[in-house]
Each structure stands twice: as structure tokens, then as C-alpha cells.
Amino acid sequence: MRNFITIEGCDGVGKTYQTRMLRQYCEENGIDNIVFTREPGGSDIAEQIRRIILDANNSQMDDMCEAFLYAASRIQHLHDIVKPALEAGKVVFCDRFVHSSYVYQGLGRGLGLDRIVNLNELAVGEYMPEFTIFLDLSPAAAFSRKGGADKTDRMEAVDFAFHTKVYEGYKRLIAECPEKFEVIDASGTKEETQAKLREILTARGILR
């Protein structure tokens, strides 16, 4: 879907920080045609589902229940935020989207990539990203940099082997469809990563 851009990466890589810095840059430079949002969540009902998904007290949640909750949040988020913005001619920049489900539930949880792809085809229909920016940093480096996993976040608190599978899953998706991704080496400083992000978006005609 034209003008729909997503950002992906392992937990701790800095997606939220980079999205916030990009938003600040756009506000300071009068670029007002971009809508920033996130998943899971983004709108009221979707945010309520997010709290259920990430609550560390819900450690007994079934993996398939988790996958369906992500898809449910995504459906609502599309309805409330993404579709109206795109129809209004805006650019939508989303922190996480379907590729997170592919690698976290399909590959990390072992539910099967095809299974999760099929589930999300029902959830999103034609609203797939025009391209996805992947912040490339291994889980070991990401968690080391942030001082360890957030134990109050049910997804971050999963064992390290899971996060390794997630990272390898992203690499697999990129290898299979490289034209759908822009990969940024996120091992440098926050400022260096932000500069690379803006450079890509300028080259793509998103920023001016």
C-alpha cells in the first residue's frame, strides 16, 4: 500500500526511540503529512488489547491466543488509524506491523509462518506496507545496550533462545523478499541510526 511504511526490529533495538525522533524532526520542519502510530495498539480499543498481550501476569497465555490477539488489535488499528489516514492522502509510519507477527508468533513461537501469514491476510487484506525499515541489531547487542530485558513486558521476558529465533526470522524474510525491506545497521549511536533512517526516507521521497 503506497505511503504505508513500517519499522521492524528485535526488542531493545530502538524502534520506538527512532520513531519518536523522526516525529520530532517532522514537527520541527513543518512536515505535517505523516501520521505516526504503533502496534500492537495505536487506537483506543487496540491499546486495550495491547495491555492484555504485554501484561507479564498473563504468562499462561496460549501462543495461538497471542497470535489472534495481535491480529485483532491490527484489524481495529487499521480501521481507526491507518485506513482513514491513507485515504486522506497522509503517509503512515507504523512502529511494528505484520512482519512482527510473522517472526514472533510464526517462527519464534513455532506456530508456522504460513499459518500466521494466512491469519494476517484476513486481518489486513490489501493494507500491506509499501516497504519496511529493519533496524538490524542482534538480540544480544540490543539487550546489552538497554541493560537487559524489561521483565514487566511479557514478550521481552521470554527466554533468549526465542529472541534469537525472532532475529533469524527477520533475516529470513529479508532474504526472501529483499525488495520489500530497507535494512539499517543499528549498531552505531542513536544519532547515526536516525541519520540513516532520514537518508532512506529522503531517497524514497517521503521526506524533503
Strand content: 5-15%
Mean pLDDT: 95
- How many β-strands, per DSSP? 5
N to C succession of SSEs: EHEHHEHHEHHEH
Percent helix range:
40-55%
Q: Structural class from helices and strands? A: alpha/beta
What is the straight-line distance between the termini? 21 Å
Low-confidence stretches: none
The general outline is: globular
CA-atom Rg in angstroms: 16 Å
Count of DSSP H/I helices: 8
Largest sheet: 5 strands, parallel
Major sheet: arrangement of strands: 2-3-1-4-5
How is the topology of this model organized?
Elements (H helix, E strand, L loop, with lengths): L3 E5 L6 H14 L5 E5 L5 H11 L8 H25 L3 E5 L2 H11 L4 H12 L6 E6 L2 H8 L13 H17 L4 E5 L4 H14 L5
Parallel strand pairs: 1-3, 1-4, 2-3, 4-5
Helix pairs in contact: 1-8, 2-3, 3-4, 3-5, 4-5, 4-7
Describe what you observe in this structure.
54% of the residues lie in helices and 12% in strands. The mean pLDDT is 95. The protein is of the alpha/beta class.
